[in-house]
Design goal:
By secondary structure, this protein is an alpha/beta fold. The protein is about 35% helix and about 20% strand.
Length: about 100
C-alpha cells in the first residue's frame, strides 16, 4: 500500500494570505500538489477543497492540518472531522 501525506490549509477570507501555513506544510515535507487550500469561513466543512480532499484520501494516507484558530468551536469541528476519518480507517493525523 502506497501512502501519501496530504495537507489542509484554510484562511477565513480571500484577502488573508495562506503563505505561512504553506511554508509549514513544505517544512513537513508535504508536496504542494498534495496540499488543499480553502479561503472561506470556518463555520462548517462545506468547503470545496476540504470536500475534494475527503474524496481523495485513502486508507493509509496521513493528513496534516495546520490549525491556527482562536475559536474553540472550530477546534471541536476538527475533532469531529478526525473521528469521521478514523471511522473510515484513517489513523494518522497531525495538527
Amino acid at each position: 500500500m502506497h501512502s501519501i501525506v496530504y495537507g489542509y490549509v484554510r484562511v477565513s477570507t480571500k484577502e488573508q494570505n495562506p503563505d505561512r501555513q504553506m511554508i509549514a506544510m513544505r517544512e513537513r515535507g508535504i508536496a504542494e500538489e498534495h496540499t488543499f487550500i480553502d479561503r472561506q469561513s470556518g463555520k462548517d466543512f462545506d468547503r470545496p477543497a476540504y470536500q475534494q480532499m475527503m474524496n481523495v484520501l485513502s486508507e493509509g494516507d496521513t493528513l496534516v492540518i495546520n490549525i491556527k484558530t482562536r475559536y474553540l468551536i472550530q477546534s471541536h469541528l476538527w475533532v469531529q472531522s478526525s473521528k469521521s476519518l478514523s471511522a473510515r480507517g484513517f489513523g494518522d493525523f497531525a495538527f
